[in-house]
Amino acid sequence: MDLSIAALLAQDGITNGAIYALLALAIVLVFTVTRVIWIPSGEFLSYGTLTLAGLQLGKAPGTVGLLVALAIVAGLVETASSWRQGALARLPRRLLFWVGVPLLIALVLARAAPLQWPFPVQVLLTLAAVTAMGPLQYRIVYQPLADASVLVLLIVSVAVHFVLTGLGLWFFGAEGSRTPAFSDASLQAGAVVFSAQSLFVVLASLLLIGVLYLLFGATLYGKALRATAINRIGARLVGISPSFAGTLTFALAALLCAFSGVLIGPITTVYYDSGFLISLKGFVGAIIGGLVSYPLAAAGAILVGLLESFSSFWASAFKEVIVFTLIIPVLLWRSLATRHHEEDE
Amino acid sequence: MKHRIWQALAAFALVCGFAPTASADLTFGVTLSATGPAASLGIPEKRTIELLPPTLGGQKIHWIILDDGSDTTRAVTNTRKLITEDHADAIIGSTVTPNSLAMVDVVADAKTPMISMAASARIIDPTNPRTHWVFKVPQNDSLMADAIAINMKQNGVRTLGYIGFNDAYGDSWLSEIKRSAATAGIKVVAEEKYNRNDASVTGQVLKLIAAQPDAILIGASGTPGATPEKELVARHYKGKIYQTHGIANPDFLRVCGADCNGTLLPIGPLVVWEQLPDSNPIKAVAKQYVSEYEAKYGPGSRSSFGGHAYDAWMLLTKAVPVALQKAQPGTPEFRAALRDALEQTTVVGTNGVFTMTPQDHNGMDNRARVIVKIENGKWILVK
Which residues of B lie inside 8 Å of A (Cβ-Cβ)? Predict the structure, then answer.
């Protein structure tokens, strides 16, 4: 192995690591605010790529049907809960948010597909459509279970993962898709060639992480989320609605996943079930960050990407084994190094 | 004339008298992988079976189609259900090798003939007595691997690199191509593995290119086969690239795009039936099937996988009338007669000509393969 191969492998590892990092951040975000171990994050990545690929082909993507279905279910859930609370006066406004907005996005998506709008508009449309599914998922599945234990939420997450994979097959079909590269250009630096594509992925991920940092550090909404993450009951006492925090969290997390889906589209073929393995690697990153620390989770995800890239060169048959074995020493180290404290439930 | 009618009535009475309590209709049980990782193979098979006629040899057919989700346990459960509850006269399926291998024991115990749509030669291994009841319609991997090795030799290839799935499909192809390459005097200089869902195969591809093989074979099925090929092109690999017939569907062409121009692969003749000479007997059968299928599912929707399901039907159309002369459907005697008839069957299918013998429950020969080249999203027959 010479330097140029090592540089190519490192570049490949960092590019994939950047995508894993976005998923790791989404997983940490969701866990800290809602205590949900968000296994279905990968499905949102698949949906992102497949939606964009559908728009590129000029076909209405399966996301349209998925959004309509979710909006209808959310509308029913909302109506039922308003009925039970005797708060029917608030129902029209809620229905506008839970049913009207997703249906509007679905309509735009369906109408826009044959028009072949410019690529950036298609990306924005994709992000809007997939992001809308995050809050819908929270409203339908997790909000009614907000006070359940972590274990129940985990089991529900596994179920949601299987449902979403099945729906993905139904709406997107069994075959995978790729999206065209953002750019075919490459930069020469000494003996090493960097593709513009991978630079773009890394820069976009860094940018998104920066935006999140600002959001959490400088805006009231971000601070509200942080407060909920630190102490749920305390946050509630000072007037932060847990269901609002949950909705916002799932919107942000779905946006992160959809964005990583857009980024990964030109790199690899994405299938309706591809997301799971990618999110598992993001999950390993998140575990390295102890499911609480954003910088450690991102660094862990980059480490996973690098490890994967180099092990695929040396021992391709054992690549996954090597990547997932990493979690054992990390868990050992974390359980020895940090003082364990039971969650107060 | 009157005499004839009496004869017919007598025969009818005889038949009714001896018929079992179950109806005398034919029952064909199908288990295939319409969901799960093998869905892109199972879906065209399912669609093909839905196109098939509702009668055969004057008998009504009950088609019972179950999905095993590419899962071995469910394939076995489905098979048991089809045999014990539905009293299937024959089982068709499953789509993939692990499922079919697991079903072999079930049908052997129940003495029910089975026609598999999976590729591995182990499913019909003649040295295993359990495969007595099992037949198989897709080409053996060895037949296809030989075609690749012969074509490589013609193209002056001396060294070969291999990258394939890290599963039974990839391993089976690796061992087949090693055998075929050795007989053609070609040396395998690099072996790499990857997974269907891998986001990147850069590491493996760099290692392959470093070994500088004259040609590279990708042992993959469906659209995941495009991942290493696109990476090889991006890394400016200049040698020839070969694929296996597992990738041959329209989605692969869509995903791989212009990067796959010039790729060579062996394939069943169905996919390129228009380009076959008129003297080839397969042409008429393939034309019949493809035009029926594409009339329903759109032009270009053909795949050899759907053809396998149709070939299973072709075998049954020959064997069932023979078996009907010996016994009534729904009885163990009929199933045994059907098995014996299948073993004697010679029929032209969509993917080749089947000449079944007790030693060979696949019965295909060199007519079951052609080499095609991908050019601008089309399969072009290499003569």
Answer: 35, 37, 39-40, 43, 166, 192-204, 206-207, 210, 222-224, 226-227, 249, 251, 254-255
